[in-house]
């Protein structure tokens, strides 16, 4: 297994989720600070968007508008560079907070949710994935997922890959041209590791942030692990970007659960050099 050595890129945050690289900037949600930031190539904050109901997943539509999952009010928000507006309201569809999502080339959004009241201490239970179409139609497209989290579309748009955090599993579906999911299958069994955010590289391998073990792993279809980065804390999410698409940006919390509950600003973005770049269309 090859080791990736992370370096500090940005620091001083509460809990960074869902990094995405776009047009020379790194976009990231600070869930507990209720803000989305755009960071320059040297890690400086360039844009701040206030999201009162906890931002989570991020993604870009084909027209370059930013979509933000607003967790607590179960809405997908759209930022066009000036205005924050509701893109879709999943209240009545989602169960629990919205989480991460993927967007296909047609602008359809595949979004998961917690499936239970985690904040209130409810017992975890399976939940569903929903598809939000460009015309606003919302459809349930997969059921019985265990805390669906990071999501990414690979294989030229033909496969959706989803991390199921609490069961240590990465799951794949065939994705049809009409946006339907079929042929559910195991991509990787990570056993005791809990995959949170994920991204894909140009070879279709998945980089997975394993929250409970503080690892960022490059995983092949079938479960082989080829590369690993380790942090002293919680591994939260990751994305490939940078000028050549080979920089792996990793969000992490470098502290304990008690530090997190105390509001310690110990969440950071780390960066390391990957051998395989991001997909060209990403």
Question: What is the element layout, followed by pairings?
Answer:
Elements: E1 2-3, E2 7-13, E3 16-22, E4 25-30, E5 35-39, E6 45-50, E7 55-60, E8 66-70, E9 75-79, E10 84-89, E11 98-103, E12 109-113, E13 127-132, E14 138-145, E15 148-154, E16 159-164, E17 169-175, E18 181-189, E19 195-200, E20 206-210, E21 215-219, E22 225-230, E23 234-241, E24 247-253, H1 257-261, E25 267-273
Give a verbal description of the structure.
The structure is a single chain. This protein is mainly β. The protein has a single domain (2-273), classed as Neuraminidase (6 Propeller), CATH 2.120.10.30. 2% of the residues lie in helices and 54% in strands. The chain has one helix spanning 257-261, and strands at 2-3, 7-13, 16-22, 25-30, 35-39, 45-50, 55-60, 66-70, 75-79, 84-89, 98-103, 109-113, 127-132, 138-145, 148-154, 159-164, 169-175, 181-189, 195-200, 206-210, 215-219, 225-230, 234-241, 247-253, 267-273. The strands form six sheets. A five-stranded mixed beta sheet has the order 1-22-21-20-19, with no helix packed on it. Strands 2-25-24-23 form a four-stranded antiparallel beta sheet, with no helix packed on it. A hairpin with a 5-residue loop joins strand 11 (98-103) and strand 12.
Rg, rounded, reads: 17 Å
> What is the CATH architecture annotation?
6 Propeller
Beta-strand segment tally? 25
CATH T-level topology: Neuraminidase
What form results from the Cα inertia axes?
Answer: globular
Number of domains as seen in the coordinates: 1
Whole-number mean pLDDT = 96
CATH class descriptor name: Mainly Beta
Percentage of residues in helical conformation:
under 10%
List low-pLDDT spans: none
């Amino acid at each position: 297994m090859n080791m990736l050595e992370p370096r500090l890129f940005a620091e001083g945050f509460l809990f960074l989720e869902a990094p995405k690289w776009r047009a020379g900037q790194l976009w990231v949600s600070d869930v507990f600070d209720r803000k989305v930031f755009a960071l320059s190539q040297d890690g400086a904050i360039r844009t701040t968007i206030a999201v009162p109901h906890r931002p989570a997943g991020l993604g870009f539509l084909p027209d370059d508008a930013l979509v933000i999952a607003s967790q607590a009010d179960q809405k997908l928000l759209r930022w066009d560079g000036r205005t924050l507006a509701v893109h879709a309201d999943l209240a009545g569809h989602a169960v629990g907070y919205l989480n991460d999502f993927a967007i296909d080339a047609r602008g359809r959004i595949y979004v998961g949710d917690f499936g239970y009241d985690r904040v209130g201490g409810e017992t975890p239970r399976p939940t569903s994935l929903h598809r939000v179409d460009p015309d606003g139609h919302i459809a349930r497209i997969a059921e019985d997922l265990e805390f669906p989290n990071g999501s990414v579309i690979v294989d030229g748009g033909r496969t959706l890959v989803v991390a199921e955090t609490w069961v240590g599993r990465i799951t794949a579906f065939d994705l049809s041209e009409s946006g339907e999911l079929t042929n559910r299958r195991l991509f990787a069994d990570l056993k005791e590791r809990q995959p949170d955010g994920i991204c894909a590289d140009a070879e279709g391998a998945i980089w997975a942030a394993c929250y409970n073990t503080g690892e960022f792993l490059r995983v092949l279809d079938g479960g082989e692990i080829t590369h690993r980065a380790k942090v002293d804390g919680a591994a939260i999410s990751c994305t490939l970007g940078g000028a050549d698409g080979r920089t792996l940006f990793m969000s992490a919390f470098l502290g304990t659960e008690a530090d997190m509950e105390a509001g310690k600003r110990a969440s950071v973005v780390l960066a390391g050099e990957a051998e395989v770049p991001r997909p060209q269309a990403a």
